[in-house]
Amino acid sequence: MELTASDAVVQPGLVRRPRARPGALETARALWPSLFGFVLFFGVWELGVRVTNTPPFVVPAPSLVAGRFWEELPMLLGELAVTLVGASIGFVIGLVVGVVGAVIMVHSRTLERSLFPIAVVIKLIPFVALAPMLIVWLGYDVKPKIVLAALITFFPVLVNCITGLRAVDPLAHEFFRSMGASRWEILVRLRWSTSLPYLFAALKIVVHLAVIGAIVAEYFGSRDGIGLVILRTSESLRIQSLFATSLLLALLGVTLILVTNVVERRALYWHESVRTSGGRG
Amino acid sequence: MIRRVGRAAEGFAPPVIAIAAALALWEAVVQLLRIPPYLLPAPSVVLGTLGQLLGAGWVEPLRVGGAPASVLRDASITVAEALIGLAAGTAIGVALGTLMAHSRFAEQAIYPVVAAIRATPIISIAPIFIIWFGFGMAPKAALAALATFFPIMVNCVTGMRSVDPQALEFFRSVHASTREIFWHLRVPNTLPYFFAGLRLSVSLALIGATVGELLGASEGLGFMITQTAINLLTTHVFSGVIVLAALGIVLTEIVSLIQGRVLYWHESERA
After folding, report:
1. What's the total number of domains in chain B?
2. What angle do CA A192, A91, A119 make, to 5 degrees?
3. Is A176 on the interface with B (CB under 8 A)?
């Protein structure tokens, strides 16, 4: 099982377009198609529900969903906070283990060839399906969330980090060695910076998945959190509340992606994938 | 010849040893600490159960309680749901992708809406689909479609946009029509991207279908896994998860095989 570039979740910096820093008018001009898309989507939905007289317990109109969303927002945010605590702890653990594992595997061929296959086997397991077992093993508290989020985070981070640590410019590597740099210096000053774009490519996927993992764990057994809210509202067929929860989670997902993008731009200001997009992306 | 076998063995030995060691460690821990099988079954026990489930062949399931006798029927249902969903997701993904590749306006209008839908976790949409479509195959196929259309759409857009400018220039210079450019240049150029998206999507489709089954179903692998989990039939849970993982590998390999046949002319396959 040789590690190839195609194992990397996403190659960094592939879908960027160069863009100049725009003025207010240009921003408006650039944003209006997206605005049009959302208005069309929700407009067709709202109109369809009204014209066909669909009862709100089958398909609630967006206006109804928005009302319910506003009503339930304080409760939802409270539960979401619980979910996010579990998800973040798991995320950090998965991230640290993934990065440390990658550093170890890059430096020892033997360890890589013996540990990486185990990581591949771990990757093949559909963890969502193991959620019911995690509840049996770890109980109804925060632990199953942490473990599921960590397991989901671990593999993409490991693979992309290995790929990135390997992707050093051979000339730069040669230069460092000719200056008598130690392995540690090469790691910290050379390999780490080449691996960052790859690491961020993995993070963009994983940040969101860690939260989903925590929600899944909550769904199968928990005393609080968004997962429990979904379970309760679906059991009582409160479809408007389900839509309101989905809306909140969609907003959260979009926010997480945007935040990761901002952090990436700050951390990678020197990298060409960020520079060619004019600081925006 | 001997040297080649030796080199192959050298390449295979570390992973095989590592996985065997991990399994042996697991077995030893379970045996030595006498962990009861309902908590954590030893790998040998899981293999035994898996063998039984597979060896039993096609058995109509018991409707009430008890350990399932077979896994083939449940597996075939999950695969059917995943494939129906994948077909629908592919159709939607290709249609949206083609539209977006044709016009910047369509891209900018569609992409944010679709990205927001994509950002919504399946687990919060699944209950809505189950309420709408009932406990049969339809909501699972819909979830599989939802999980799969996005990678295919994105890859289609990338593929159609990334045609070789020189080839495009050549097509234009011989007065090829837009339609000819589409079918003879853009589509062949998109195929490798399309297959990359499809390979990603196959396992996503399986997971989408399984999530639907975990939340509300009367058959399928996800149903088998939740039912055995609440009855603490842990060896059956593990067997179900292994079958699910194996299906993911097999289906992905099948897509790779088809890719090889279709893209025999492409450098990625010739190399």
Report:
1. 2
2. 70
3. no
